[in-house]
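Amino Acid Chain and Its Fold in Token Form
===========================================
Scope: a single protein chain, as residues and as a discrete description of its fold.
Amino acid sequence: labelled as such and written in the usual single-letter residue code.
Position: the record begins directly beneath this header, with no further notes in between.
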Amino acid sequence: MKPRQKWILTVVVLTLLSAGALLLQQRGTPVQAVPVLRSNLLQSVAATGRLNAPARIEVAAEVTATVLKVQVREGDHVKAGQLLVRLSDAEARAALQQANAALAEARSRATQQATVVAPVSEQAVVQADAAWRNADSEFRRSEALVAQGFFSQQKLDEARRSRDSAASALRSARVQADANQPRGVESSLAAERVAQALSAVQMADARLARLAINSPVDGVVLARNVEPGSMAQPGRVLLTMAAGSIRVDAAIDEKHLHMLVLGMPAKAAADAYPSQPFAAQLSYIGPAVDPQRGTVEVRLSVLQPPAFLKPDMTVSVELMGENRPGALVLPAAAVREADSASPWVLMLQDHRAVRVPVKLGLRGIGTVEIVSGLKEGDLAIPQTEKALPGDSVKQASGAYSVKGMEVPSFVTR
């Protein structure tokens, strides 16, 4: 074969190979690929929970009575001591008035005993003492005259009886005076009557107070089960309240337990108000893992609860962990077997789908850090695409969303 013919044959072969390669490139199965990017990566844990209150209080009556007024409705915020329900109290008010009158009478009698009876009894002692002295003097004089023969024995006996009677009256007056002293029996009885009357007033006041049902704590009314005119009975729940600062109760997958730290900041949003997120903070980590669900219970305190939050609302929570600027990141959907000991990525390389082992770092919401195995700009094929290791590839237009950004996509075969 002549040199010119060999050269023409070589050109034809190369042309055919190029055409075959181009044809092979255009025959791939279209799949999208995403590039490895550098970005700030925030390691976070997402969970769904519910708003809850530390305590639910069921408000009930202590006595049987007719409901006169109900001052609150569902959703009302109430303060401790605020009137919630008023029961019929006419009889209790009358009993309190009667008890107050009895107390006033007991106090008046005690005052009378101290200011009138006690001084009078003292004067009675003085008078009785004077009478006894006079009778004793008369007895002595009669005794002397009888001895001299001027009086008969009968006169002396009468004088003796008078003296004995005066002595008895003096002893009685002294006992009466002692009883009316500040520490005497009559004074003690008067004080006891005042104390009894005061206790009766306090009991009547307590009965009246039970007919005005007030809020025991600050809280929110969740349910109203009573209306004016109905009969309240002991044990029957009239109102249900949520008390205390509102919190978020959630369950976190146990594989994220190592990332949880008390005081960890979080961002939460109620499903009913997704565009109005609010701040929260991790305040409790459960001591045990639920063996059936593989989750651990956590609680988050809400620092400044928005007014629209209500107990039992569904809430989405993102716990904010370590932040790493300039990290190599990929969408989580592009990493295969991420939770195993040997994660890997299906990489788009030289029009081929190539399996590449990688080492992972931080994990964010929908993204993961690539510590080694890939470099910035490398293309990875997500698990959602129909491509296997060894498939040939071709580029395609379009976009693929990564953490809220639109990035160029490619087509593989």
Q: What stands out?
A: Helices lie at 3-25, 90-148, 153-179, 185-209. The chain has a mean pLDDT of 82.
